Amino acid sequence: MTKLLSCFKAYDIRGRIPDELNADIAYRIGRAFAENIKPKRVIVGRDIRLSSNEMADAVIKGLQDAGVNVYDIGLCGTEEVYYATFAYQDAGQPMDGGIMVTASHNPKDYNGMKLVREQSKPVSGDTGLNDIKLLAEANNFSEPVTQRGSITLVSIGTAYTQHLLQYIDPLALKPLKVVVNAGNGAAGHAIDWLEAELQKTMPQQLEFIKIHHEPNGHFPNGIPNPLLIENRDSTIAAIKEQGADLGIAWDGDFDRCFVFDETGRFIEGYYIVGLLAEAFIIQNPGAKIVHDPRLTWNTIDIVNKMSGIAVQSKTGHAFIKERMRLEDAVYGGEMSAHHYFRDFSYCDSGMIPWLLVIELMSKSGKKLSQLVDERMRLFPASGEINRTIANPVAAIDIVKNFYQNDARVVDYTDGLSMEFGNWRFNLRCSNTEPLVRLNVESRGDETLMQAKTEEILALLDS
Questions:
Q1: Three-state SS for 417?
Q2: By CB neighbour count within 10 A (0-12 exposed, 13-18 middle, 19+ buried), where does 92 fall?
Q3: Any residues with CB less than 8 A from the CB of 325 and at least 6 apart, and which?
Q4: Which residues contact 422 (CB under 8 A, 6 or more apart)?
Q5: Would you call the peptide bond into 293 cis, given omega within 30 degrees of 0 as the criterion?
Q6: Which of 349, 359, 356 is nearest to 205 (CA)?
């Protein structure tokens, strides 16, 4: 009887070790990836979790047994697998796919994988992940091929660092003191590479204050997830103690970065999307910018004023990347602190955003608070609020029925979005849990935004 695998999610693979994900399942995923994608050359990387080496070794064995040549980039962040997949070549031959072993910000007894095809195109849901799941569950693979795949250890550090620095003009950077919190995840070495390269061209311009910098799969300072308020304290304290100009913190595989201003205030990802959209339209007049439906007005207002084109996409990396390719958009941003770049093969990066932010600060001569304060005043937002509800669909219907007669715009791109004269909201179900996620914003009226947030929460609680 086929055993169903619960570690396959909507966009990636994520499960508790060892009951939901283990070396046997990882091997089968490697074999299934090879059978479905039919690659000849695959990049593999792994994060710092205690189980990651075992999982990576098993998936590599599965690939090799299917005749696939593996290029192992070792300990890394997810974006390094993306970069290597679209940029690295062996004797002029490009890569056909990539597998990153990571569970990002999940608890430390979890692990998982993110899969991509050639040019780092996502493998998720209907683009192959469901088929790979079925193959891995059936576990009905032929005997290993007679010509097993090879394994090559690859270093991408120099080329990857040079690529990151192409997004800014390092000579434009002014002296700044920057707190960087890797959360004992994988971000530390990428920061070190960037620091070393920047020191060559502009010594003393950037001073990095490094906290929780060393990778440690025991996570002695908590799971690296800066969306959790309790995980922000060490970054805030370092900013205040050191008189830093800003702080940056990452999740475990550093595909998201979170920004704090010089006062230690956490800046919602929504407002960073607006900042970066403006920066890219200045460089690319008339460019298209893709955004998610949760919070939109600030982004649309900035893009329209800059004579760019704002394009709405369903939430989630696979949808954002697909829409960006379709539109040839230069940049895409989600309020969850995922930022996507056309020149990064439409993939998300946690390193490019903060480089762009410090360049904006340097060129404008403004503090980070000055760059975002006006936008936060013009479009105050609730931030994402989660509620555990037994029947999320029914709860969303209650909210829709309450407001539908007054709504000027009703949109179902992702969950339920409703717009009124001076405020709007988005309410959507979680893909994996009995949760609804609420975001509310207004036009320059924080009191109204807060009142409507409480009103909707009361409806949900009823």
A1: strand
A2: exposed
A3: 346
A4: 442, 443, 444, 445, 448
A5: no
A6: 359
Decide: 235 and 179 in contact? Cβ < 8 Å. yes
Please answer whether residues 332 and 276 qualify as being in contact, where contact means their C-beta atoms are separated by less than 8 angstroms.
Answer: no
Burial letters for 381-398: b for 16+ Cβ neighbours within 10 Å, e otherwise?
bbbbeebebeebeebbee
Task: Give the H/E segment covering residue 399.
Answer: helix 392-403
Tokens representing 15 are 């499960």
pLDDT digits (tens, 9 = 90+) for 90-144: 999 999 999 999 999 889 999 999 999 999 999 988 889 999 999 999 999 988 8
Instruction: Quote the CA–CA distance of 110 and 116 in Å, as a whole number.
Output: 21
Q: Which residue bears the tokens 């499960």? A: 15
Task: For the beta carbon of residue 225, count every other beta carbon within 10 angstroms.
Answer: 22
> Residue 129 has which token pair?
């992940």
Question: Are 56 and 78 within 8 A, CB to CB?
Answer: no
Residues sharing a CB contact under 8 Å with residue 350, sequence separation 6 or more, in sequence order:
77, 79, 187, 250, 251, 254, 255, 256, 257, 339
The single residue listed with the structure tokens 């080329």 is: 159
Which residue type is seen at 318? A
What the chain holds in terms of domains, given with CATH numbers, is 13-157 (3.40.120.10), 174-267 (3.40.120.10), 268-367 (3.40.120.10), 385-461 (3.30.310.50)
Give the separation between CA 443 and CA 297, rounded to whole angstroms.
8
Catalytic residues: 104
Is this model's pTM higher than 0.85 or not? Answer: yes
How is residue 122 annotated by DSSP? B
- CB burial class (10 A; 0-12, 13-18, 19+) of residue 226? buried
Terminal Cα distance for the chain, rounded: 43
Amino acid at 319: F
How many angstroms separate the CA atoms of 172 and 88, rounded?
29
Reported as a single tens digit per residue, the pLDDT across 169-212 is: 999 999 999 999 999 999 999 999 999 999 998 877 899 999 99
CA dihedral (383, 387, 392, 398) positive or negative: negative
**Residue pair 151/143 in contact by the 8 Å Cβ criterion:** no
* Cβ(77)–Cβ(186) below 8 Å: yes
The answer to whether the CB of 12 falls within 8 A of the CB of 98 is no
Rounded Cα–Cα distance for residues 145 and 154 (Å):
24
Structure tokens at 273: 């999307």
Per residue in 393-406, pLDDT tens?
Answer: 999 999 999 999 99
